[in-house]
Amino acid sequence: MLKLEGVNAAYGQSQVLWDVHLEVRDAEAVTLIGRNGVGKTTLLRAITGLHPITSGQVRLNGEHVQQDPAYARARSGLAYVPQGRGLFPHLTVHENLLMGLPALNGRPNARHDLPELIYDLFPILHDMAGRKAGNLSGGQQQQVAIGRALVTQPRYLLLDEPTEGIQPSIVQEIEAALTRIRRELRVAVLLVEQYLDFAWAFADRYYVMQKGRVVETGLTAETPTRDVQRYLGV
Interhelix angle for 168-185 vs 138-151, to 10°? Predict the structure, then answer.
């Protein structure tokens, strides 16, 4: 289980996260929603160790990891696909995927090669393995970014706005791939998403953030999207 208890974080003197409690169970899909600027990305970065927390606890499989650097959390099973994808545009698709392998260093019984499942999930990546990532469409780049995260053989996959700027057909492919990732690899997913139809179709539970705080949580199957739409409007 990934569990946050009373997490606070700031940028200088400006506090951004306030006493956040959140959990993601094994192989579960959870979506985190809220308007732009409420702290969702900061929360993902705090979980992965890319932004320090000022107080609180981050637990991964029962172990406290809030003091661990980002690379140690990656080796413990956390993978992160940031908003904007974070690819190396001048490297090829294949080279970008290889960048996930260092996260396996020191992990017992890990295979240090690209899993065939990545090309099975995203066949286009095999066809474009030699192309530079910066020349791909937004949807293709997102598939590379998710594939690179899967190279690390994670137990928890954190995704920040994976459908942003992507055509509907590719969104459907990504949803199908994420569903297989949960079912076949037993990977849990924490999804920051503004596209409620996608989030509700995929996730089991939701959290709503406002001004750096979690203000509502529940089951997606029991909560119509219209009941939370107000949290996304201007």
Answer: 10
